[in-house]
Amino acid sequence: MQTQVNILFVVLASAIFALLLVAFIVIFLNITQKRSFKYNENLLRIKQEYDSAILNSQIEVQAQTLKEISEELHDNVGQILSSVILHIKVIGEKAPVNIQKQIEDTKSLVTEIKEQVRHISRSISPQHIENFGLFNAITYQADRINRIGAIKIELKTEGKEKKYNPRIELVLFRMVQELINNAIKHSECENIYVKLNYVNEVLTISVKDDGKGFDETEILRDRQFRDGTGLHSLENKAKFINCSITFNSGEKGTKVTIIKDFENEYY
Amino acid sequence: MNYYKLLVTISMASIILPNIGGILAYRKLDIEGKKILLFFGVFMIVDFTISWLANHNINNMPMFNIFSILEYGFYAYLFYSNINNRNWRKGIYYSIWFFSAFTIFAVIFIRSIYEFNSEVRVVESLFLVFCSLLYFSQLSNTLIFERTKIFKIPMFWISIGVLFYFAGNFFLFLFFREISQISPTIWSLHSVVNIITNSLFMISFLCRLK
After folding, report:
1. pLDDT of B148-167, one tens digit each?
2. Average pLDDT in the B20-49 region?
3. ipTM of the complex
4. Does B168 contact A14 at a Cβ distance shorter than 8 Å?
């Protein structure tokens, strides 16, 4: 009788044990997977932070280098060119009348070079962007290109212009600069339209050209193409300042839209 | 109909569950999913035939014994397809031949083909419990790379079902002779385990739906 009870007990116990074993496996695997998801999320976050730090240093190094070049152009090259103009003026006073016209032409050319150097110095200076704001910096850049005459840049704003965090504005300016350069270099366009739209704390910048455009699928696929056209760098910058960037391209040209929400980042 | 008979009937009918699950999720089934559904379809026909034979007082054990080979082959094939280690795969592959040979040996030399071969079920349980533990071990090692939630993996639910059924009934199969003499109603335990197992197999299809 005792053996029979034992057998029944073992059978029942084994069924209960199987149930517990299954429950244990389910709980164990579920917890392990949750942990591994968390671990992967942390890994991704650390990678993003690392990428962001790298990009930050790149931007800082670039800003510092451009600042130094800008100062060098303004203080050194600008001064030398002023001296050259002065020298030409002195030579002009003593020179015979028959070469006065050439001297005057040379003086005008050097003055033009000095002016161009001053413009370049201002447009690359981070200080200039910080002092005058994003809109004025873009206006200055557009004027400089319009003066050359090959391509026309039309600049428009909608909404009330605001001043935001200068570091973010600097990155946005570099992005616009890169988009304008891309349009000039690759699109064979005649006109570039830049629009800044301020709605509440959201700034939307669109850069549109009337050039030949490109294959959008090519962009998504080809990393080399993205690197070559600086699109990868644009995406990195967008990620760095936490804004969105979209590319639309077709036969009538390319339109790039940058949307930055400045909520909580208002300066 | 008493409680015990009702439970046995529900248990027998519960093989419909995975088939319903498979039909509901049919559009989401890949080739392996369709193969599994086909096997469950065959299982259902076999189960109903076994039941029909029993109701007509015809010995259904020959069919049951032959079906054991098919059943083991099916589960072993699933583990063979889902386990990555080459050596274990080889082991599972040979176990199908071994089990088939053992079943034939058992029905000829140990028991008659007209009897329930508990030895065959014990060996089958041992192999399949081991296979499912092997699968879980592999799953726990690869979880870090697994993007799908475990509850969305069909093989996870099939392994749970196999482990629960064969571990839960192991001692029932082992002490089959003794239990038949002491208390035949203890077989209601098998019915309960079987219903839960078929429900788990149904989830293995439904988990593919969003």
Report:
1. 788 889 999 999 999 999 99
2. 92
3. 0.81
4. yes
Residue ranges in chain A whose pLDDT is less than 50: 266-267
To probe the interface with A, which of B121, B144, B147 has the most A CB atoms within 10 Å? B144
- A11 touching B (Cβ < 8 Å): yes
Contacting residues of A for B189, CB less than 8 Å apart? 11-12, 15
B74 and A CB contact within 8 Å:
no
Q: Match 């109903």 to its residue by tokens.
A: B48
Domains and CATH numbers, chain A: 152-267 (3.30.565.10)
Q: Among partner residues A13, A17, A32, which is closest to B143 by beta-carbon distance?
A: A32
- Domain limits, chain B: 3-206
Mind listing the pLDDT tens digit for each residue in B97-125? 999 999 999 988 888 888 888 889 999 99
Distance from CA of B169 to the nearest CA of A (A): 6
